[in-house]
């Protein structure tokens, strides 16, 4: 049986419902302002072998309860936004969404990690019509979300590739250059945001 037990069948349904609500919000934003809330996003159910590896690495029991309640990323969404403001608009939208509670958030956009990493991380608790592993008939499931701009996402992809290369001759140089690149991209994001504000103000004098 799957690490998610009999509750595996509900995970894609929960993901589809949340995805549809986000897509509707995106359509509304585009209709109201002419700008999209996001450029694209990737949604996934964590593969069983990845979940088992993570449970083992964190020292949790290899069980359905651990997979659905301890780790909190069986369902994951990565949203890539065009502008920094859209990240915060999305967080606000999720905060007000019925049946959704933000139980944890880390703002690495305003407070970047030392290596330059920027992103907004959320753990959402979703109220559902489906039973959960704690015996609730209308159960609760967790969704992990990461929100980034296009620049942040490009940098994170590059940094991820470098992290797993073990034959780099000058890792300290790569680390320094990645940090410099992250700062330059952050500056570019702010400039792009300023340009959009100018466009919006020109439309609404």
Q: Any idea what the radius of gyration is?
A: 19 Å
User: Under the CATH scheme, which architecture of the largest domain would be assigned?
Assistant: 2-Layer Sandwich
What ranges have pLDDT less than 50 throughout 5 or more consecutive residues?
Answer: none
Helix/strand-derived class? Answer: alpha+beta
Task: Write up what this structure looks like.
The protein has 205 residues and is α+β, with helices and mostly antiparallel strands. It folds into 2 domains: 5-150, Beta Polymerase, domain 2 (2-Layer Sandwich); 156-203. Helices cover 49% and strands 19% of the residues. It is built from 6 helices and 5 strands, in the order H-E-H-H-E-H-E-E-E-H-H. Strands 1-2-5-4-3 form a 5-stranded mixed β-sheet. Helix 5 packs antiparallel against helix 6. The longest helix is centred in the C-terminal third of the chain and has 33 residues, at 171-203. The chain is flat. The N and C termini lie far apart (61 Å).
Question: Which features does this protein show?
Answer:
flat, alpha+beta, 205 residues, Beta Polymerase, domain 2, five-stranded mixed β-sheet
Task: Provide a quick synopsis of the model.
The chain is of the alpha+beta class. It has helices at residues 11-33, 48-58, 64-70, 84-96, 150-163, 171-203; strands at residues 40-45, 75-81, 100-107, 120-127, 140-149.
Layout of secondary structure:
Layout: H1 11-33, E1 40-45, H2 48-58, H3 64-70, E2 75-81, H4 84-96, E3 100-107, E4 120-127, E5 140-149, H5 150-163, H6 171-203
Parallel strand pairs: 2-5
Antiparallel strand pairs: 1-2, 3-4, 4-5
Helix pairs in contact: 5-6
């Amino acid at each position: 049986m799957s690490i998610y037990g009999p509750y595996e069948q509900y995970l894609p349904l929960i993901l589809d419902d949340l995805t549809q609500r986000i897509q509707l919000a995106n359509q509304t934003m585009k209709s109201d302002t002419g700008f999209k809330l996001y450029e694209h996003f990737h949604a996934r159910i964590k593969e069983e072998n990845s979940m088992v590896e993570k449970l083992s690495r964190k020292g949790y029991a290899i069980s359905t309860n651990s997979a659905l309640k301890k780790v909190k990323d069986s369902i994951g969404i990565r949203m890539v936004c065009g502008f920094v403001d859209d990240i915060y608009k999305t967080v606000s939208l999720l905060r007000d969404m019925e049946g959704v509670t933000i139980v944890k958030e880390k703002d690495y956009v305003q407070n970047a990690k030392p290596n330059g990493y920027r992103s907004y991380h959320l753990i959402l608790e979703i109220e559902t019509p489906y039973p959960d592993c704690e015996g609730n008939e209308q159960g609760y499931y967790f969704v992990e979300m990461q929100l980034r701009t296009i620049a942040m996402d490009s940098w994170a992809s590059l940094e991820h590739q470098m992290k797993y290369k073990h034959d780099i001759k000058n890792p300290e140089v790569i680390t320094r250059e990645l940090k410099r690149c992250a700062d330059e991209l952050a500056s570019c994001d702010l400039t792009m945001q300023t340009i959009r504000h100018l466009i919006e103000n020109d439309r609404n004098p």
